[in-house]
Structure formats: structure tokens, C-alpha cells
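Lab notes, practical 5.
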Amino acid sequence: MIEVTITPNMVEKAKKKAEELGRLKNSITKGQGNLAGFIGEYVALKVMGGKIVNTKDYDIILPDGSKADVKTKRCTSEPKSWYECSVADFNTTQKCDKYVFVRVMKDLSKAWILGEMDKEEYYEQSTFLEKGQFDPSNNWTCRADCYNVRIDVLSEVAQSQSA
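Output from the prediction step:
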């Protein structure tokens, strides 16, 4: 897990992109997570390098040419290894090579890159949960059908030389 300080520049750029995007169809948080999502992309970019492209299938083309979709959750404390990373069921057809998972503090002070996992491996390792299902492992009720893996099964991300 890599802790990253969120810069004012990241917040400014993410706010602009969130306003331009508006509310996405199927948004679990009704658009409230857009800002954190874009900050998650800038955090991943800072650590991993590459180029943000924001397609419906992936967010970043990494230096090795792989296509990563960044999945971000907001949080109020440092993530623990047993917390879970989620991919909503309606995102399973995205044409990305891997998922990169990020947590962003709600006060936008810092974030953590939790790790990454190849898309195919993610679905082999994940547990499916239905909307409304209670997950006793983390005291959480699902807001949408999703697939979850624990943070401690993710691979560490490769850091860019300039990070």
C-alpha cells in the first residue's frame, strides 16, 4: 500500500473533470463519488506514470502499454489489509487489462494506492455480492451487485521512475 499526499493541483483538476462529467448512468453514489474517482486517477498517475485517457473501458494507459481502470472508494481512515475492493457488476465488460484500487480520504488530504490485479484474475479471486446483501466480514451492505477482493490479495503497483 502506498500513501500519497493529495495536492491542491490534483483537487483542482479533479473538480473540473467531475463538473464536466456530471452524473453517470448507473452511478452508485448518484455522482457524489466523481471527485474522489478523478483524484484516484491522478494519484495512480503520480505513482505509476502513464497517461490518463478516460474511456468507458479504462482510465490510464500505463508506461508498459497496459490499460488500467482505477476503482476508487472514499474513506475516513487508513485502509486495513482486510478491507475489500469492489467492482460493480455493470462494469464487468470493461476492456481493461487490470484494475488499480485507490482509497481517498473524504477530506481530500491523502490517498492510498492499495494495489492492482489483472482483470481475469480479479474475477477468479473475487466474491460476488448482491445489492442489499450484508457482508459480515466488514460490516457493509452492498449498494449494487458487485465483486469484492480483500486488499491483502492485491499485487503492489509498479512505481514510475519519476514518482
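Observations recorded by the TA: The mean pLDDT is 89. Residues 8 and 108 are 9 Å apart (CA to CA).
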